[in-house]
Amino acid sequence: MKHILTLLLLGVWMASALAQAVHTGKLTGSLIDSTTNKPVPFATVALMNGQKLITGTTTDGDGAFVLPNLALEKYTLVMSFVGYRTKSVPVLLSAERPILPLGAIRIENEGKTLGEVTVAGQKAMVEDKGDRLVYNAEKDISNAGGTAADVLRKVPTLSVDLDGNVQMRGNSNIKVLINGKPSAMMARNLADALRQMPANVIKSVEVITSPGAKYDAEGSAGVINIITKKALQGINGTVSATAGNMNRGVGTTLNVRQKKFGLSLSANGYQFRNIRRNQSSRTSFLTDSEGNRIPQTLLTQSSNADNTGTGGYGEMSIDYDPDSTSHINFAANVWGGYYPNNSVVYNRLTNASGEELQAYRNDVRFRNPYGNGQLDLGYTKTFRKPGQEFSFLTQFSRMPDNYFYDTDRYASSEELIYRQHSTNYSRNKEYTAQADYTHPFTIRTETDTIDLKLEAGLKSILRDIGSEYRVTQSLDGSSPFVTDSTQSNDFNYIQKVYSGYTSLRFESKRKWSLNAGARFEHTDIHGDFVTTKTKLASQYSNLIPSVTVSKRIGIHTIKASYTQRIQRPMVWYLNPWQNQSDPKNIQTGNPYLNPELSHATELAYSVSTKNGLSINTALYWRQTNNAIEYLSTVDSAGISLSKPQNIAQRKAYGLNMNLSSQPVKNWNLNGGGDIRYVDLRSPALQQGNSGIVWSINMNTSYKFPKYYTIQANGNYSSGWISLQGTNTGFYWHSISLKRDLMNKQASLTLGINNPFIQTISQTNRQTAPTFDSQAQYYFNRRSVRLSFEWRFGQMNANGGKKGKKISNDDAGGR
Fold it and tell me: What's phi and psi for 445, nearest 5 deg?
């Protein structure tokens, strides 16, 4: 706590020492039609200082506008609206006249009837925002009717395998946020959560590889922030429906925003289908006194599964501005659904001589009813100085996450020989409160002007995690079920995180920028196995530095950054419940895990030309100590136990490149690639693995005159490397065609994933002192879907003030 107070006191001292007294002014006025003298509502009003946009708004229903909290300088007021000529008015705010009423400003009609307006250019699919890379998902028609996993497959620096598992530059320990705030759904099981989120609600995806001090330290690989579509000024909404062989869904949104008040409602229901099969073989070994591995058993398995999950979610958000400097926002959302994972598994176990020891069929009925509810309440106060701001934010989330399975084991003669029933009721409750303060100021010298921003804040998180699991079994398949005490327990886990940060950002007119800061985090953990009366406890503190410096030279930008990251074990890793639905392959969590600590360094170069070409390249190095990986051991009976463990170190050295261009006005083309050398080492386990992995992606779209847009996407990954093995590569491609309808208020999109091949295969090879294994997985990933969307109501650019929300594990309430 002493370190946190020290950081805050330092921030306050810097603010008081460097802040300068600033008087602010205000502009008021209204727009009227020069011919009819009627107001021009919802026109765009922009305040410019040279070529720099200072602020902006839109006129209200009476054509009036107000621009408050302005520095006392010379400006140009630019007013525009469809069908009118753009008008510019010079204005001067001074200490003698800080409030300037402009009265009624006449704006002239174009003098001709406008036909259909053709947009000369399209917004780039991928944009470099300096500290983040942004993929504009709403501009990608191939996402219509898909899932969030389909969207993330097209995001630069990310790779998504055929089962929906996500990696950023080869690391799967990623923090995924929704609108800058954490989602318990994403912390539960990322691959499952992405399959359950409809793509049509996603506006864009931000990738942040080097987060600063304001960001929570969690997420050793970096941060993914999924931005959903938001309400704008007015009343508007959408209705959508998707039909297909792998994805189906319906959804609706309604947005109301008038002056001080805003309301957004959304609801979606969806289904997704997962078809797969696999074949595997695994040899178990014993090691003799001379270190030789002696084969013991050979297990061969084959399985098939065809499951359809059903779910839905709803969200409500309310924004209210009691006055011109205060903003209150409240949001509530709920997710829920049912995800079965039924399968039929054929097993055959032989000894080293080939003699059959076991042969049976295992029928598994696996159910995962899940849910998540979350409440956000925030207050933001702005001051007379532009950019000066204080916010206080709170959040509560509760996620019941339950797993149930029944297994029936049959001998070769089809005789029922064993039955098992398992229940796991798990929960994750999270309470968060944070306060943030931002103070801007300016330093002027004879040769330069530097804009600075000081940020400081406090945050507290309480995570209450629990798991209650029971197993009953019938040892001969016909006798009554009895409780297996070795697989039954109650587990409670409390994690408290206290943090504080101070950071300083500056930008100069000479195009230098710097973001430097430090974040202190203290973690306190207590765990309790209630049934067996076993406890665990630990605490640790981390001081996390971060620095990013960049220089812009014309159209070129050079950037260097360094930061540290922490990856605390998430619920999925901690839950000690054992999934024995496949008795030869048992999976469990590990409540004794320690956090990862990563060092990340990056050197980046980007160039953006006036004709729309953007190239971003980055050399990066990451070293993760105490890295978390799932490791397997196999006993003499051929049973594998897989659980997450801390290995010694994971290193990655890589080169990442992304390109975005618009060769002609209606053609967008973007793509990229990543190549890296991965090195994993664990002296304690006497294992290591290394190699080169790479990936490439390409996305192109063309907008035809009037109604049609066509798009194609393809990506390939060479696979990945783990401590115990490798996965072979996989690829994905899609083609989409969109037709605008009803004067562009509606659209119909046909999408085909993997049209040229129905089944995609992957091979996983693993080796360890106790086993060698190889598994071949086959995924049905050819899909066809037809999506319809109708947009109604009126939208305008003034969305009111932007509410802040809690961003656990990342964005500090952006």
Answer: -120, 180
| Angle made by CA atoms 732, 737, 740, in degrees to the nearest 5 | 145
Query: Residue 196's pLDDT band (boundaries 50, 70, 90)?
Result: low
**Residue 596 C-beta-side C-alpha neighbours within 13 Å:** 32
Domain-by-domain residue ranges, the chain? 2-107, 271-654+768-775
The answer to whether the CB of 159 falls within 8 A of the CB of 117 is no
Please state, in angstroms and rounded to a whole number, the distance separating the CA atoms of residues 804 and 13.
Answer: 26
- What pLDDT is stored for residue 174 in this prediction? 76
Beta bridge partners of 462: 431, 496
Closest CA to 70 of 382, 453, 504, 381: 382
In the chain, the N- to C-terminal Cα span, in Å, equals 24
**Residue 799: predicted pLDDT:** 44
The pTM assigned to this predicted structure is 0.73
pLDDT at 21 over 60: no
- Let me know if domain 2-107 sits in CATH 2.60.40.10: yes
pLDDT classification of 186: cutoffs 50, 70, 90? low
**Alpha-carbon Rg of the chain, whole angstroms?**
29
SS (HEC) of 698-761: EEEEEECCCCEEEEEEEEEECCEECCCEEECCEEEEEEEEEEEECCCCEEEEEEEECCCCCEEE
- CB of 381 within 8 A of CB of 329? no
**How confident is the model at residue 203, as a pLDDT?**
83
Q: Are 593 and 646 in contact (CB under 8 A)?
A: yes
- Per DSSP, 188 falls in state H
